[in-house]
Amino acid sequence: MGALQRVMTGGLAAFLLTGGASLPQAAEQEKPEACPGLIASAPPLVIRAALAQNEVGVTFVGHATFVIETPQGIRIATDYNDSVRPSTPPRIVTMNKAHSTHFSRAPDPEIAHVLRGWNPAGGPADHDLTVGDVRIRNVSTNIRTYGGTTEYDGNSIFVFETAQLCIAHLGHLHHTLTPEHLTKLGRIDVLLVPVDGGYTMETRDMMEVLKSINAPLMVPMHYFNSSTLERFLSAAREHYPVEFSDTASVTISRASLPRQPQVLVLPGR
Fold first, then answer.
1. DSSP label at 133?
2. What is the pLDDT of residues 214-248, one digit of tens each?
3. What contacts 156, CB < 8 A, 6 or more positions away?
4. I need a surface site. Which of 12, 94, 190, 251 has the fewest CB within 10 A?
5. What pTM value is reported for the model?
């Protein structure tokens, strides 16, 4: 078990922040405090025993799907699809449309909220949903079509605000981000990053995205195999320390965020 994973699960490693310390100074100066909103300080209704009020559970199910669990027990699955799913239906799912492994045509009927990262009627998707102790919003981006053209607003970066943390899932991002995108994102604490190196973006372009967002914790996804993952990690190590988790699930709090940006690899499919 790496040092970063120990602090995620126990909050004891000496080289990470303790208490409610702030993010790196550069990130605070460059990013507006758009996240978290008032929902982050709302009193909890029912607290799952395994999570404190300031903790969020993140589990890598596989491909681009994570389950995010809030202190009140709200479960969210990202890029929910028909191939890789959590074992039990979450309350909320987000989806994107670049490939069928990022959306479902038949979501489980037990799911209360299905948030699509594109608008079937055209134009950008526009989500801003609060359920319990989590706020979910999206920032629209573009995708490449199979013919090589641009489909505007075909993807969404979803942002999950809970427990004083802002977690962003890049979805099937196909381009670097503009200042307008970054302003809409605001401060991001945990970034879930596709690192395939081609289907989404080339590694050098994805590294530019990571630098522009400057999240303290970055978690790779969408890497298919170990060689693809290692190609990304080789580039990432030039800028960030890399830790490996023994388990697919970690517990994260604002106090346990790294002092400087780091990459944490969770085992998954």
1. T
2. 999 999 988 878 899 999 999 999 999 999 999 99
3. 94, 96, 117, 118, 125, 127, 138, 139, 140, 141, 171
4. 12
5. 0.83
